[in-house]
Amino acid sequence: AHYKSEADVGNAIAEAIQSGLVKREELFITSKASNHGHVVEACKSSLKKLQLDYLDLYLVHYPLATKHSGVGTTASLLDENKVLDIDVTVSLETTWHDMEKTVDLGLVRSIGLSNYELFLTRDCLSYAKIKPQVSQFETHPYFQRESLVRFCKKHGVVPMAHTPLGGATANVKAFGSISPLEDPVLIGLAKKYQKSVAQIALRWNIERGTPVIPKSSKVERLKENLEILNFKLEKEDI
């Protein structure tokens, strides 16, 4: 919802189903809740835009409640003075119980977390009536977050990697370091396995049991991403 892509995605899904290309049950569709305090309404808004009766997975986008600016929109986290400006009247526990309501209402099959650190994940497990099935967070060879990955697995929560290629140029600009895709070790492994550096980085997460969701709009990159399932890294290279 935050990225305002649901209407376009909904049109594509509807066209694919109507043409007989796929059936709804063959798709696994995820969206995220950004409207803390208005979760059920936000979920219904997403379903309407996606032209669906239910979501397979619904995630809390961030463990922060922005000031409410209307269902389907997200206010800035900063005020005019660049100071954090969030709604302190809405707790994460309240948000999670609202997420559980979307399951009870049949709007959603499973619920989960996004961008939650280890201790916030632990807190959620302590008050959840319906346990989060997935926790999605940034992790890649330069940001391994092994403690969080292991904690999630221990408690039956699937750790899922967003930004699994390290953010490329965005992280270079933000932190002044090279991109993981320019790392000499990864480049060497790419030559060893005759794969791209991106495929090595993605396969590294797969090998440790962390599903990846790389983003690309290029057909050749989408195909390349799928091909990470066709090889394995040797233990010494992981």
TrEMBL record:
<feature type="domain" description="NADP-dependent oxidoreductase">
    <location>
        <begin position="4"/>
        <end position="238"/>
    </location>
</feature>
<dbReference type="InterPro" id="IPR018170">
    <property type="entry name" value="Aldo/ket_reductase_CS"/>
</dbReference>
<dbReference type="Pfam" id="PF00248">
    <property type="entry name" value="Aldo_ket_red"/>
</dbReference>
<dbReference type="InterPro" id="IPR020471">
    <property type="entry name" value="AKR"/>
</dbReference>
<feature type="binding site">
    <location>
        <position position="61"/>
    </location>
    <ligand>
        <name>substrate</name>
    </ligand>
</feature>
<feature type="site" description="Lowers pKa of active site Tyr">
    <location>
        <position position="32"/>
    </location>
</feature>
<dbReference type="GO" id="GO:0016491">
    <property type="term" value="F:oxidoreductase activity"/>
</dbReference>
<dbReference type="InterPro" id="IPR023210">
    <property type="entry name" value="NADP_OxRdtase_dom"/>
</dbReference>
<feature type="active site" description="Proton donor">
    <location>
        <position position="3"/>
    </location>
</feature>
<dbReference type="InterPro" id="IPR036812">
    <property type="entry name" value="NAD(P)_OxRdtase_dom_sf"/>
</dbReference>
<protein>
    <submittedName>
        <fullName>NADP dependent sorbitol 6-phosphate dehydrogenase</fullName>
    </submittedName>
</protein>
